[in-house]
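User: I'll paste a sequence; please echo it back and then give the predicted structure.

Assistant: Echoing your sequence first, then the prediction.
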Amino acid sequence: MNLESAVEMNIDEQQDCYILAVETSCDETSAAVVKNGNVVLSNVIASQIETHKAFGGVVPEVASRKHVESITLILEEAIQQAGIPPEKLSAIAVTEGPGLVGALLVGIMAAKSLAFALDKPLIGTHHIAGHIYANQLTNEILYPCMALVVSGGHTELVLMEKEGSFKLIGRTRDDAVGEAYDKVARALGFPYPGGPYVDKLACESEEVETLPRAWLEPGSYDFSFSGLKSAVLNTVNQHRMRGEDEFHPAIARGFQESVIEVLVEKAVRAIRETSAVQLLLCGGVAANRGLRTALSERCEQEKIPLLIPPLVYCTDNAAMIGAAAYLKWKNGEFSNLALKAEPSLSLEEWSVAT
């Protein structure tokens, strides 16, 4: 299908839009069918966690090979569960970045092949836009709004003045939250992925080890967690040098409280100092129980409307890619078959054209 035909088909607002979305940016192989940007007809996810546990983290080449093994079956299952014949699909969407280049390429090649074979438009989609619009799968997003993105590779504050428009006002200068959690978990002896172990231990601990907060310059919306990570490592070493071995819960709670306080305070200040009327929590670390609780309580206290996606839409999944791709579909913005993987794809540049 040429772009002109796709745009003409898109003009009919009465016609339902069925997007088959593909997500392979890291270590989950996922495919989903999403109707009109917010109705999930299927969302199939194959996780590689057990494979990468042996290495203590994601090995890019192993991840790519696993995607190759799984992608065809995942696509078939997603279409079957959705109950939509392939010829009735409106478009094929795929994560083009950011992510691991080899992993991205597997999904992109599969999506391009489908788009060509079915004569459907192709929509290259930004991974972080997907995490943000995962909230749209269960709630209405109001504009202007602020998104707090917390994941393995990203910690950002994103101002969205209107639908599909992204402006980064704050970002991490070193480790992202998810990376910091995994490194601290490793120091405490937990397996990969360590974030859930730290979260559980922190929520259960009655003791707390006081650790520093990195606020950076006055008025800054940026984040930094490398110093906190180093402080944790130093504290762990000090306990071990003294022959102590019951320090894990207190450190886990101290670390988590430090991270959460900075995230919550900067997000709330960003809401107050901009025109945003709603706060969105997005990304894999949005599944963190401590963060969800603290942010919910603070937003209720400040009377700030807060959206948090269900756990299934926090981690990487294709339904969120379908939700974000719908923005491009409505605006008639499609990719061509020369689409390539963009490991450092800019969120602001991916914004829907005005």
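Strands lie at 18-23, 28-35, 39-47, 91-97, 122-126, 145-150, 155-160, 167-171, 279-282, 306-307. Confidence is low (pLDDT under 50) at residues 1-13.
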